[in-house]
């Protein structure tokens, strides 16, 4: 196995099988560390077994560097070589830069692949200012209200209600009045309404110092997530969001401080049913003469415990498109279920009776003529 690193900003520790060019282990860290190589070795042992030999560069962490301190734990060569010796793995160091070349080619291959598979996706996220805990991540094809709603959903389910959101004035949170009268397209109205009902303050700022933590997070994730997604063979947006659920706890375990809930500003979140209604897109409309409402080119009727709710014509009501894509109607602070109404088309075509064959009377002039003709033939 060829063992080495690549470090444009984050250090990629990796190992490649010499016979098949198979990547048998990858791990990221902020610098070249024993922990990084131990994680690569752990992946090899778990997935493939004990290798026969490690080839590595003399300039890497495997070259013996005696530390002035008497602390044996800082003597890296002693630690890794002891582990390999107990496993029966030989370490061969060489000054020929083959290892670096293989890792560099691996890095370039990963980048080329990701440019094709993830041409343009947006990562929505939030980080706790006190502990550096990443409390939510979500991918979407563009910066959307749905993306931020999914981040907020993760926060509410896993941590509770936060006290304040700090965000950039240039983001989706800044009020931008849409020329359309469609209230659903007014993003600020939707997110601010949700935060207002939760009691969360939104503070927008253009000062770069306030964005330090989230900008550093983007710098870290931009390189790290690309390679993690590629290593996990993620190819779709749905798979990427599913992967984030596994990735986030591991990431926080390495880089975040534990949250002290005794001194935390998080407040207990409401029940799941209420969260579903809060993280919604609302719009106002009027009922028609049949107590139905029109939404997304479809007709709906309101029900209360399976009983049809009757409204006066042109009654102002609020439609709630909930987080889990279910529709509700709100009227006088009461929530009703909305079910699609498909009118039955009656067959208005009248079925005409079949006409009977008309037989002329025996004394009809046509009959007399026909009779005379028949007699003459005979």
Account of the protein in words:
With 378 residues, this protein is α+β, with helices and mostly antiparallel strands. The chain folds into three domains: 2-117, Ribonuclease H-like superfamily/Ribonuclease H (Nucleotidyltransferase, domain 5), CATH 3.30.420; 122-255, Ribonuclease H-like superfamily/Ribonuclease H (Nucleotidyltransferase, domain 5); 280-340, no CATH class. Helices cover 35% and strands 23% of the residues. The chain contains nine helices and 16 strands. It has helices at residues 34-47, 76-87, 98-117, 145-158, 187-198, 212-231, 237-255, 272-278, 365-377; strands at 2-6, 11-16, 23-29, 53-57, 90-94, 122-127, 134-140, 164-168, 201-205, 281-286, 292-295, 298-304, 307-308, 316-321, 327-331, 334-340. Strands 10, 11, 12, 13, 14, 15 and 16 form a seven-stranded antiparallel beta sheet that branches. It has a five-stranded mixed beta sheet with strand order 3-2-1-4-5, with helices on both faces. α2 links the parallel β4 and β5 (90-94). Mean pLDDT is 78; it is low at 3-8 and 97-118.
